Amino acid sequence: MNARRDRFYVTTPIYYVNDVPHIGHAYTTILADVLSRYHRLLGVPTHFLTGSDEHGQKVYDAAAAAGISPQEQTDRTVVRFQDLWKRIDISHDDFLRTTEPRHTAVVQEILQDLFDRDEIYAGDYEGWYSVSEERFYTEKELVDGKSPEGKPVEKIVEKNYFFRMSKYQEWLIDHIEKHPEFIQPATRRNETLGYLKKPLGDLCISRPKQRLPWGVELPFDDGYVCYVWFDALVNYISAVGYRRDDAQFEKWWPADYHLVGKDILTTHTVYWPTMLRAMGLAMPKTVFAHGWWLVSGAKISKSDGNAVDPMDIIDLYGVDALRYYLMAEMTLGQDSTFTIDEDGQPISFIKRYNSDLANDLGNMVSRVVTMIQRNFDSVVPAPGELTDDDRELERAALAAVDGMVEHLGEMTLDRGLSSVLEAVRAGNRYFDRTKPWGLVKSGDTERLGTVLYTAAECLRIVSGLLFPVMPTKMAELRTALGLGDAAANPSFEQLGQLGTLTAGSKLPTSQALFPRIELKKAKKTKEPKKAKPKAPAKPVELAPGVIDVHQFFETKLRVAKVVEAVPVPKADRLLQLQVDLGDERRQIVAGIAEHYSAEEMVGKLVVVVSNLMPAKIRGLESNGMLLAAKADGVVKVVTVDGEVPPGSEVG
Ligand code: ME8
């Protein structure tokens, strides 16, 4: 469990500075920040590294398009990332730019060393290159003449330098199999193991300067620069003193978590470990690949023009609310949808904010603080003897402390936050049960004081537990509860010490912590007149259970290809499927595990109901339903008779 780590080194991807940051970049960085802050509370020495990936084709092209030098492009854009991190309270210990000499010099030394030891050799390269993804594909990997992600590719033959990645294939498979924690979650481990079933080639690690002059120059051939990924991945070690400061390097390496999005799984779980192996270094403990933030079923990305600007949310609703939403809404490892209505209102955000922060937490805070202000002249009352009700609330708050520590260890942060919110809800129920307003009426001041003190104690614990996620708001809450040094974040140990709230301290006047967000009513948009099918002259009376054809066509059935499948832990009947619907990917949780293994399902063309409201099954988002036939306890999923493109309509 994380609580027992003796130090914690966490990294984010270093982001490309070809464009400004969007909510996806903010997400990974906030996640690393929250994990770092929790570990600091646990008393674990922590090192949090982030930075910028400044070389390569993308940045070079962006500079050319803007009519400026690549260095100017990086200098201008990196500030946008650094400013955003300041704005959203990122507490990183280091920000590495790959154009800094402390990094480039180390990259060159590594290249020279690998070249001297024949881990890097010169050869001819013939392949298909995708500019937008900055990587080569083999002929076999292309799909309809494009990269597997659908990006255009061009054929290139040239002399290049190669890293002997292929010779580490068997070792890597063995390492992944022996260390289940190395690639998480399990779906991603299976994906990498699947990738490693095909022979692994050597990795082309150079780019001729005449095609791309922007990069770290190869120390053994000045006609070439280093491939951007070979340069970028090294940031995780150059930043902590590799080849420069042995004591610092010993202290932090290997990293505890490389946090990445699932888009960059192969580079982190195939290229990086083989590079480290060739350098004779230890493997990172875990590469954790989280899912994507989607809008209308598509990955949020700048190039797709659907980027959500974090600043828009922050300006309207505040930094902490955004941080909370991103952490509470996404189940780590799965995709999550950011919904925006036709008026541009971030609906999923507002719903989560109103239910958890305004209705539950904000409401409890305002009940406790207002009653102390009105009935005890703003002075925290001393508790009398505790009843079972009071003890029950104390137990709920302490359970949240344990829950958070446990969920941190399992990287189930959303569930850790639910356990804290559960304590808040228990607090509101406690209020309803103990009815302090009734105690005011009956003049039972001692019992009233005990109830308010116990509720405020619960809030003290909650404020500490949510501090890593909402540092500003929780400092405000601590001030509102009369806790001396508002900014001081208590350790987990202090959090669990009951009776820490000081009776007799005076509460300052405070404002509502999380005012409710009123949703604007959706505009009435005029529906374009559809050519309606002719209604029958007389209403037809349908026999019970019979529907007419229009009712049938309200159900949208589509063909989907199952691209990934894994069993749902602790649920014997469920499989968690990722399906391809042509224009989007979805997750469906299906109750078929007793009839199909996960492996059997992958590759099947199934029929799904595609216009169902998303549902949560065992905490997993399920977006659609599989059709299946059932007879005598046998279940067979409905498939199509032949190859049709995923997404095809059925009907
Ligand atoms: O890949 N949802 O940089 P990059 C969730 N420079 N996370 C998202 C996201 C989304 N829709 N979009 C982006 C690179 N991200 C390389 C990395 S590391 C040695 C080099 C996050 O600017 C997610 O963490 O394209 C993803 O992996 C990363 O941004 C990609 O950032």
Question: Main attributes?
Answer:
651 residues; alpha/beta; Isoleucyl-tRNA Synthetase, Domain 1; OB fold (Dihydrolipoamide Acetyltransferase, E2P); seven-stranded parallel β-sheet; six-stranded antiparallel β-sheet; 27 strands; globular; binds ligand ME8
Cα end-to-end separation: 51 Å
Give start-end ranges of low-pLDDT stretches. Answer: 524-542
Number of helices: 21
Output the CATH topology of the domain at 349-495: Isoleucyl-tRNA Synthetase, Domain 1
Estimate percent helicity: 25-40%
CATH homologous superfamily label of the domain at 349-495: Isoleucyl-tRNA Synthetase, Domain 1
In the CATH hierarchy, what is the architecture of the domain at 349-495 at level 2?
A: Orthogonal Bundle
What Rg, in angstroms, do the CA atoms define? 28 Å
Mean pLDDT across all amino acids: 90
Taken as a percent bin, the fraction of beta residues is 15-25%
The CATH class of the domain at 349-495: Mainly Alpha
Which ligands, by name, code or SMILES, are bound? ligand ME8
Which structural class do you get from the secondary structure elements?
A: alpha/beta
Shape: globular
For the secondary structure, the number of strands is 27
Can you summarize the main beta sheet? 7 strands, parallel
